[in-house]
């Protein structure tokens, strides 16, 4: 009989997902005849791990079993788990050993004032994300790159929710699938710390109802403690800009993470990021209103250094342009679909 222990259920789901991704030839077994299951059979994993089939089956069913660390080690090898996945397996199994009433401590998430100061002296976009990837704090350059989180209601001020519920996120980020997969894996690792957390249940439930893509990626049971990647953003002001993004854990258990976007120094992307910072600084000093009203407001081309007549750019790279009678180069404006 299955238990109501949330960690035992999560452990069983994780084991099934990891078993389903393996093929017999991946682990040196003969495929045999026609198979009725995706991936390996339970008895095959049990054989590889040196466990009885009945014991392993009870683990997958979320029953009240308490595997030893040696058994977990053997399962990690049999399932070909990487470092993050192995830690996830051990965390779930050890949590499942605790009584159901032993709930984790749920302290309010706070951003220290020193972290807020760090955000605002950084010369690159940065955000602080809570344990469920809620946006807790951000700097002006992150707002210029991604939009103002304050424009969203608090429950929607979440990186995963934005990726799956906001159509503009897919237009802004080329390589959306890779970024979405990593964020979902990071959320999965966070949910494993407290599967019954009200915020986790509300967020996962809402996204599962409204997004088939989220349901697909959530069912993979991928886990990542910290993620990184490279994304090409199509920004409406500076055009295409490729940025690396990394996450850094901040103090706390579980603590928030710092998400930072950077450009490789000396590249056109770095110059476009600097242009974005300049445009934001102009806006903060009250010069943006007039600039937006003037279709020929002067901006600086990041790769050539000469003044350019800039209109509203949706998807465009800075180019040589055409010199007018006054010697000022103009920029051809191209919109999505042109």
What this model shows, in words?
It is a single chain. With 338 residues, the protein is an alpha+beta fold. It has three domains: 91 residues, 434 Repressor (Amino-terminal Domain) (Orthogonal Bundle); 152 residues, Beta-Lactamase, CATH 3.30.450; 55 residues, no CATH class. The C terminus is likely disordered. Helix 1 packs antiparallel against helix 5 and helix 2 crosses helix 4.
- By DSSP (H or I, 4+ residues per run), the number of helices equals 14
Q: What is the averaged pLDDT score?
A: 79
Give the tally of structural domains: 3
Strand residues, percent: 5-15%
Can you identify the CATH class of the largest domain?
Answer: Alpha Beta
Q: What distance separates the N and C termini? A: 61 Å
Helix content: 40-55%
In the CATH hierarchy, what is the architecture of the largest domain at level 2? Answer: 2-Layer Sandwich
Radius of gyration: 25 Å
Number of strands: 10
Q: What about the largest sheet?
A: 6 strands, antiparallel
Structural class: alpha+beta
Coarse morphology: elongated
Strand numbers in spatial order across the main sheet: 2-1-6-5-4-3
Ranges with pLDDT <50 over ≥5 residues? 288-338
Topology:
Blueprint: H1 6-20, H2 42-49, H3 53-60, H4 69-78, H5 83-96, H6 113-121, E1 126-129, E2 135-138, H7 140-146, H8 159-165, H9 167-172, E3 173-174, H10 176-193, H11 198-210, H12 212-218, E4 228-235, E5 239-249, E6 257-262, H13 268-284, H14 288-293, E7 298-300, E8 307-309, E9 322-323, E10 329-330
Parallel strand pairs: 8-10
Antiparallel strand pairs: 1-2, 1-6, 3-4, 4-5, 5-6, 7-8, 9-10
């Amino acid at each position: 009989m299955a238990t109501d222990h949330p960690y035992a259920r999560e452990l069983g789901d994780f084991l099934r997902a990891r078993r389903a991704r393996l093929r017999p030839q991946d682990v040196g077994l003969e495929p045999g005849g026609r198979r009725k299951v995706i991936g390996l059979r339970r008895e095959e994993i049990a054989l590889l791990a040196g466990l009885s089939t009945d014991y392993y089956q009870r683990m997958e069913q979320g029953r009240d079993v308490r595997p030893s660390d040696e058994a977990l080690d053997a399962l990690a090898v049999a399932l070909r788990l990487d470092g993050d996945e192995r830690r996830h397996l051990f965390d779930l199994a050890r949590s499942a050993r605790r009584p159901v009433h032993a709930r984790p401590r749920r302290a309010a998430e706070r951003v220290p004032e020193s972290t807020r100061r760090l955000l605002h002296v950084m010369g690159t976009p940065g955000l602080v994300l809570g344990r469920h990837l809620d946006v807790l704090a951000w700097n002006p350059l992150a707002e210029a790159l991604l939009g103002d989180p304050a424009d969203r209601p608090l429950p929607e001020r979440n990186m995963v929710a934005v990726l799956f519920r906001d159509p503009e996120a897919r237009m802004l980020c080329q390589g959306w699938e890779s970024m979405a997969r990593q964020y979902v894996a990071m959320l999965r690792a966070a949910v494993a710390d407290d599967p019954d957390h009200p915020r986790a249940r509300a967020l996962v439930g809402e996204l599962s109802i409204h997004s088939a893509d989220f349901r697909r990626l959530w069912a993979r049971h991928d886990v990542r403690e910290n993620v990184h990647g490279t994304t090409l953003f199509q920004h409406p002001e500076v055009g295409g800009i490729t940025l690396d993004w990394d996450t850094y854990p901040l103090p706390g258990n579980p603590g928030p993470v710092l998400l930072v976007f950077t450009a490789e120094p000396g590249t056109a992307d770095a110059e476009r990021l600097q242009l974005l910072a300049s445009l934001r600084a102009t806006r903060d000093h009250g010069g943006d209103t007039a600039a937006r009203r003037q279709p020929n407001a002067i901006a600086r081309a990041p790769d050539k250094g000469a003044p350019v007549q800039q209109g509203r750019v949706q998807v465009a790279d800075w180019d040589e342009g055409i010199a007018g009678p006054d010697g000022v180069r103009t920029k051809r404006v191209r919109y999505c679909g042109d």
